[in-house]
Write a structure and sequence with these properties.
The chain contains eleven helices and ten strands. The protein has 268 residues and is α/β, with parallel strands linked by helices. The protein has two domains: 143 residues, Rossmann fold, CATH 3.40.50.1860; 111 residues, Rossmann fold (3-Layer(aba) Sandwich). The structure holds D-glutamic acid.
Length: 268
């Protein structure tokens, strides 16, 4: 088992997991992060479960080689479809966490919530991970889910804070599937980038759950409870991608004050 000052590994299919990485950097500045964006295989949301498991376990091996003490699956599609497989694959070599469980735990405890909407990729929505886990913890809640597959390419292509993204947001959120919700889970780590636009669509009358912050807080508690909090910063954050895409670099730099240096690693 690695030392407590070893990095926290995170991975996503692309830029999305950086919303989680950013929330972690803000809350836990002592932790060194090792991020992998699988840009060569983006999007995960349209892939089969087997393929997502194959990519995810391969990335876990890479993060283990980097000595990560914790591997956080910073991608809902992979969390929903490959968490148990990655955990079994990694065994006792590192801790494995996902982004679905912390959000489910948080929402199930929200006192004023009666009707929860969940949006995410097709792979996440079809898995029913949020739906089933929320109803298990809070059987009185109503859960309505909708796949919103255009959001990821829209964000990756830089269509944010503009008329095109507003029109796509309206087209999805006005659907009958999400009628009368009081709370909305952004079940994809790309979506916090358009969180304000989504809140504005609802005139701020629907609680839009900030999953990146919730996951970072869950991780902090987890590290504290397991004696895994870093005592000092071991080095700079590291960012790896499986393919170089200009949009990754542009959006990545929107999230961090530090300039992100991307290194390309061919895993497959
Ligand atoms: N950011 C991802 C998620 O949380 C996946 C997007 C994709 O690759 O389809 O699901």
């Amino acid at each position: 088992m690695s030392s407590i000052n070893n990095p926290i590994g995170l991975f996503d299919s692309g830029v999305g997991g950086l919303t989680v990485a950013h929330a972690i950097s803000t809350l836990l500045p002592n932790e060194q992060l090792c991020y992998f964006g699988d840009t060569a295989h983006l999007p995960y949301g349209d892939k089969s479960r087997e393929t997502i498991v194959h990519y995810s376990t391969g990335i876990a091996d890479f993060l283990l080689e980097k000595g990560c003490k914790v591997i956080l699956i910073a991608c809902n599609s992979a969390s929903a479809n490959a968490y148990h497989e990655v955990k079994a694959h990694v065994g006792d070599r590192a801790r494995v966490l996902n982004v679905v469980d912390p959000v489910v735990e948080h929402v199930a405890q929200m006192q004023d919530t009666r009707h929860v909407g969940v949006i995410g990729t097709k792979a996440t929505i079809v898995s029913r991970s949020y739906h089933d886990a929320i109803l298990e913890k809070a059987p009185n809640m109503q859960v309505s889910s909708l796949a919103t597959p255009l959001f990821v390419p829209m964000i990756e292509e830089g269509f944010v804070f503009d008329d095109i993204s507003n029109a796509i947001i309206r087209a999805y959120l006005s659907r009958q599937d999400l009628a009368d919700i009081d709370t909305l889970i952004l079940g994809c780590t790309h979506y916090p980038i358009i969180r304000n636009q989504i809140s504005r669509y609802y005139n701020f009358e629907v609680t839009v759950v900030d999953s990146a912050r919730i996951v970072a807080e869950y991780l902090k508690k987890y590290l504290e409870e397991n004696g895994l909090l870093a005592t000092g910063r071991a080095g700079e954050n590291q960012y790896f991608v499986s393919d170089h895409t200009p949009s990754f670099e542009t959006i990545a730099n929107m999230f961090f004050n530090e300039k992100i240096i991307l290194e390309r690693i061919a895993l497959w």
